[in-house]
Amino acid sequence: MHGFANPKRFLSLARWLTPLLLVAGLIIAFGALAYGLLVAPTDRLMGETVRILYLHVPAAWLGMGGWTTIAIASLAELVWRHPLATIAARAAAVPGAVFTAICLITGSIWGRPTWGTWWVWDGRLTSMLVLLFLYFGYIALSGAVSREGGSSRIPAIFGLVGAINIPIINRSVVWWNSLHQPPSITMGKSAIDPAFLWPLLIAALGFSLLFGGVVLARMRALLADIQAEARLRRKALAEGL
């Protein structure tokens, strides 16, 4: 982990890895979505609405994965003071929030014909909405700390505390009586027919690569801003002398 603590070493890796992840992610994700919309069979119970599965489920996974990234980076910041940990957490926040919002929007679209309502206050939907608000709070807090020059440990603590919501989201359909269907994919087994499962997994892979590319691109942009600010500060000090 500390092998890439040097920003120059990280940037040399991210410079070629970022476009690779973005291009591969776009090709795989849109290919899987095209298959799901145009080729995949309809479901016996849900009919054509099952096609939103290929966007909704990867968005849900990456919404949770984004906050997991924030929590891991926050732990690295608090324990090891990793130089890039805070930047990685900030970079993952916006794409994580976007995927969480996509999950909630597509879930509502899916729920209207399936449940007869756009929204229900059950455990899964409510905890996902809480996750979106946590993202908003983290983005605002980390932005304020960056502008005002506060301690990076404050958003890191918030990132770790917010991670409590991730297992709640995961287990909500088991702990509480819910309209949301129970877990279809668990460790070592799946209740999803292979005709739906494989395109779903490929879509998840594509969106995960896309997520990784966006995070790396945002980390590069944040580092560039920090370096530019440092140069301006040195120039101002030199002129003052």
UniProtKB/TrEMBL annotation:
InterPro entries: Cyt_c_assembly (IPR002541), Cyt_c_biogenesis_CcmC (IPR003557), Cyt_c_biogenesis_CcsA/CcmC (IPR045062)
Membrane topology: Multi-pass membrane protein
Ribosomal protein recorded as keyword: no
Transmembrane segments: 20-40, 60-80, 87-110, 125-145, 157-176, 196-217
Residues in coiled coil: none
Job description of the protein: Required for the export of heme to the periplasm for the biogenesis of c-type cytochromes.
Protein name: Heme exporter protein C
Originating species: Altericroceibacterium endophyticum
Gene: ccmC
